[in-house]
């Protein structure tokens, strides 16, 4: 089983880093089986995934900040233009809250990292918020996978998406409540 391979942690880190910049497959596809096969290492895997994802997010931010015109054609060619446009609107409306929600949402994380750079969001709050939200997501995935094992693997994959959209929904409600009572 590949999830037990001696370089599995390294590959998880590489995939997590690349996914935050350009890679189309989320690290969950590796994190889940690795956490199931070695439950005692689930937290460590979540930390690896988080750190690599945040580092990749920093690169994505830099691309958006310094080289967006170069990347714009790639966004169009990969079919992310609609998601990118929505994300830009969200950034304009909600600012840093979008980065937190991005850590949980099923929308590709790379879109958010590049948009944060395009919007020239303050870098330190971006990194801090990304670290917290990504860790919470990956820790939840890793621990649920370790706890549920193979028997619950498919349910966990579906639940993470539901939880992700639930967090986005709660964030939107929170924003509107904040605006209403402001």
From TrEMBL:
One GO cellular component, as annotated: plasma membrane
Ranges annotated as spanning the membrane: 7-25, 45-68, 89-109, 121-141, 162-181
Domain VTT: 45-142
Record has Aminoacyl-tRNA synthetase as a keyword: no
InterPro entries for the chain: DedA_domain, VTT_dom
Keywords from the UniProt entry: Membrane, Transmembrane, Transmembrane helix
Protein name (Swiss-Prot/TrEMBL): SNARE associated Golgi protein
Organism: Phocoenobacter uteri
């Amino acid at each position: 089983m590949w999830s037990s391979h001696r370089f599995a942690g390294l590959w998880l880190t590489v995939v997590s880093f690349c996914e935050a910049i350009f890679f189309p497959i989320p690290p969950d596809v590796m994190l889940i089986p690795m956490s199931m096969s070695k439950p005692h290492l689930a937290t460590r895997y979540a930390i690896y995934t988080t750190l690599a994802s945040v580092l990749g997010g920093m690169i994505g931010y830099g691309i958006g900040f310094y080289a967006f015109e170069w990347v714009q054609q790639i966004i169009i060619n990969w079919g992310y233009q609609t998601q990118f446009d929505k994300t830009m609107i969200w950034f304009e409306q909600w600012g840093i809250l979008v980065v937190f929600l991005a850590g949980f949402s099923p929308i590709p994380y790379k879109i958010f990292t590049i948009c944060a750079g395009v919007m020239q969001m303050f870098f330190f709050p971006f990194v801090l918020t990304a670290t917290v939200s990504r860790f919470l997501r990956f820790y939840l995935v890793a621990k649920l996978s370790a706890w549920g094992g193979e028997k619950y693997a498919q349910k966990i994959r579906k639940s993470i998406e539901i939880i992700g959209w639930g967090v986005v929904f709660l964030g939107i409600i929170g924003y509107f409540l904040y605006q209403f009572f402001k």
